[in-house]
Amino acid sequence: MRTKNILWPTDFSETASHALKYAIEMANLYQVGIRIVHVVDQPFGDENYMILAVTPEELAKNMEQVAADKMCTLLAELQTQAPVETVIRRGDAVTEIVAEANSGDIGMVVIASHGRTGLAHFLHENVAEAVANQAKCPVLVVK
Q1: What is the crossing angle of helices 93-101 and 127-134, to 10°?
Q2: Which residue ranges does UniProt annotate as crossing the membrane (predicted)?
Q3: What is the domain range of residue 98?
Q4: Domain count of the chain?
Q5: What DSSP element (H or E) covers 36?
């Protein structure tokens, strides 16, 4: 773990930004890099129904561009000496984050949990919990 990158998945929320502080601290402590990953949901639909004014592919590309813009803003504000790499993926958040975590060059995942309880926990997918259960490396879940 001490020679591999820290993975920080983000949805650009305030909660995720809080976890970034921990990721930076861990990267500085171990003198490793940070890989930032954001996953864009794959839109679905059928343009034959004329529900969407754009195709799902065009919508996904627009979502990726917005994510890239947010990533650039984040990098401009980031204060760390650690090397930073950014990745934007398309698909299911859990699947893509776990794939990145298990890629072989990640030593630890630092991920935020939104801390939902009760009905909200039941209704919303808990990405942090799923990543912690499926990743082969240590996972630090930050509330």
Answers
A1: 30
A2: none
A3: 5-142
A4: 1
A5: strand 34-40
- CA-nearest of 99, 74, 96, 98 to 85 is 74
Pairing verdict, β 5-9 and 34-40: parallel
pTM of the model: 0.82
CATH number at residue 50: 3.40.50.620
Q: CA-CA distance, 91 to 79, in Å (whole number)?
A: 29
* Per-residue burial over 90-120, b = 16 or more CB atoms within 10 Å of its CB, e = otherwise: eebbbebbbbbbeeeebbbbbbbbeeeeeee
Structure confidence at residue 96 (pLDDT): 96
Which pair of structure tokens corresponds to residue 52? Answer: 């969407």
pLDDT band for position 106 (50/70/90)? very high
Question: Which of 76, 71, 98, 67 is closest to 86 using CA atoms?
Answer: 71
